[in-house]
Amino acid sequence: MSQQAMIFPWQHRVWAGLIAQKKTLPHAMLLRGPAGIGKLQFAQALSKALLCQHPDEDGHACGVCASCGWFAQGSHPDFRLLAPEQDQVDEDAPAPAKASTRKTQISVAQVRELGGFLELSSHHNEGIRIALICPAEGLNVASANALLKMLEEPPPGVVFLLVAHQPQRLLPTITSRCRKVDMPVPDMQGALAWLSEQGVDQAEVRLAYAGGSPMVARDQAEASKPLELILSQLARGAGADAYSLATMLNAIGMAEAMRVMQKWLYDLLACRFAVQARYHILHNAALQALAKSVDLAQMLELQRKLDDAYRSATHPLNNELQLESLMLQYVQLFNVKTRT
Length: 340
Prior knowledge:
15 helices, alpha/beta
């Protein structure tokens, strides 16, 4: 894979702009935009390029120098990545099966450890060191304040790269000390072209289900079989096997299960009011048919319970029993006479 392939086609313009300012980059940049558009990969590629000893004419890392080797091995002495402890670094990975073990915050201890790293001298004569923080909204109050002190008095030669999916959650004082870089969202044609290059089948369907995020669509395609079985059961309405549904949903983790159900009910509600499905294009006909017999009041009540279940998804509860109760309520949504 070429070094240029480390960034995505829709990012080339932003890349060129930053590389052109390579000698005068600010000490802190906030890369912001929705999840699933490749912000973390861009930040990693930029970090590697800034540390590279022999970048190419477009500013991409050479991939063969000692610095690139260290970076590839995750052991570069001038680079640190801060992510939630025990979390997945991939911003677009599907939710893990055991959602309760996943931490979502960057601790103050991690930021203090970063402070120790910043006190060290650079390994290279250029003196550049890079701290990449993703997702930046994972900072809690204590860790955000600890980072703020570093941003207010940045050590020489340090570049902070903050990646945020929800920048509104950051402290305004942190945001004000960063140059804002709005990361581009690919248009439909560009996203579909990229998914086709990745060998993703039914790209348009998967992109719709992913809410327009191509990387989420790619990752969901790789793990789509369990989801397809779940959706085929949901499409049966009153004929669905609530207990089998609960078991399959439990296998993908409570938080992801609630996201699946929320999207399904969103489309069911849309079809109830004669609107096309947004997420489930292939199941539009089934949703339209189910919408004719759904009890609207019961569906809105189920939506409320799903929202509550999502908020408590990381609590040590008996998720399968809870899912069984929710799926029984789902099946009962359709036990009414067909509407005309």
